[in-house]
Amino acid sequence: MKHSLSDRRIAGITIRVQQWIDSLVAGQALNEGVETLYGLLLAKRTAFAPGGIASAGFSRTQQLLCKVNLDLHERIEFGLNDSDPYQRMGALLLIGWLSGIVSPAEIVYLGRHYHCVHRTLPPSPQQLGRLVALALSAEEVMVVREKLVNLREISSTMMSNFLEGFGEAASRSLRSNRPKR
């Protein structure tokens, strides 16, 4: 009985985030930023690149390793099509956390009742931003950064901190990838 109440609560929270995403205007910058983040969180892991945080952390089954070298767009498409409901729920939960749609009290509650939330949620939005950036090559960082910058339209300290962490890690990645003179 207690578990079904928790299941209904997490379902309600993620539905609330999904409704917010559905309310965004297609084709506008903010929508592109949210879609990019959602795709990055669900990107498929390959033998050549790590997968998205929601894809890895919210999976309830052992994920098969894709042995094909896919580019970022292909990893995102594969992840979006191959993800299970728990992984999608995790991606929505992370976006809701960053956007301020999911309250800190709800995060604490979910962390207590769901091991995957407790295990996957980084201690800070900056850390999540760093983890997302570190999963990308320098070339991918340049492409993604242009889209994620649109998330600044969300007036949330958590999102600002996420973007700060992403930006710091992205800058380091780009500096370390420069050719030596």
Describe this entry's structure for a reader.
Helix 1 crosses helix 5 (85-99) and helix 8 packs parallel to helix 10 (157-176). The protein has one domain (2-176). The longest helix has 22 residues, at 2-23. 38% of the residues are buried. It is built from 10 helices and no strands. It is globular and about 50 Å long. The protein is an all-alpha fold and 181 residues long.
Number of strands: 0
Radius of gyration of CA atoms, rounded to a whole number? 16 Å
- What's the pLDDT, averaged over the residues? 90
Number of H/I helices? 10
Number of domains: 1
- The N- to C-terminal Cα distance equals 65 Å
Summarize the entry for a quick read:
Helix 8 runs parallel beside helix 10.
Provide the descriptors you would attach to this structure in a database record:
0% strand, 10 helices, single chain, 181 residues, mainly alpha
Task: Describe the protein's topology.
Layout: H1 2-23, H2 29-42, H3 53-57, H4 72-82, H5 85-99, H6 104-113, H7 115-120, H8 125-134, H9 138-148, H10 157-176
Helix pairs in contact: 1-5, 2-5, 8-10, 9-10
